[in-house]
Known about the structure:
Blueprint: E1 13-16, E2 20-32, E3 35-44, E4 49-54, E5 64-65, H1 69-78, H2 90-103, H3 106-122, H4 127-148, H5 152-163
Antiparallel strand pairs: 1-2, 1-5, 2-3, 3-4
Helix pairs in contact: 1-3, 1-4, 2-3, 2-4, 3-4, 4-5
Amino acid sequence: xxxxxxxxxxxxxxxxxxxxxxxxxxxxxxxxxxxxxxxxxxxxxxxxxxxxxxxxxxxxxxxxxxxxxxxxxxxxxxxxxxxxxxxxxxxxxxxxxxxxxxxxxxxxxxxxxxxxxxxxxxxxxxxxxxxxxxxxxxxxxxxxxxxxxxxxxxxxxxxxxxxxxx
Length: 166
């Protein structure tokens, strides 16, 4: 298996959309209908869960490498910028944000965090939106922590300061 080309390497940190940052622990082959199929074995620390994903489905599932530090910094700066408020209809807003979450780029996650944070300052978020905000914020913190090589506590402070425009 070592001679094959895979999009990710063993021990590489990756982002699994809507799940968080994980580490590829190994690449194994499983027999599927008489054919050897390679799988990534990804450990997600945040949920203490291991996921097996077929290598050829990884991209389709949105699994991607951690962004470079400069992209993480851009996303961090982005959440402090002015923006147009989202629709006041929470169901429409929720659907828009769920679509962003499924796409899962660092800028999409940053957009969710920024818009829902500011919305929560105007009016308390409905329970489903609050859960979405918490989930997006956790994903954002995890990826930025890995990309910028800072602790989650340091990242949490940076995010809060940007959102408050300090």
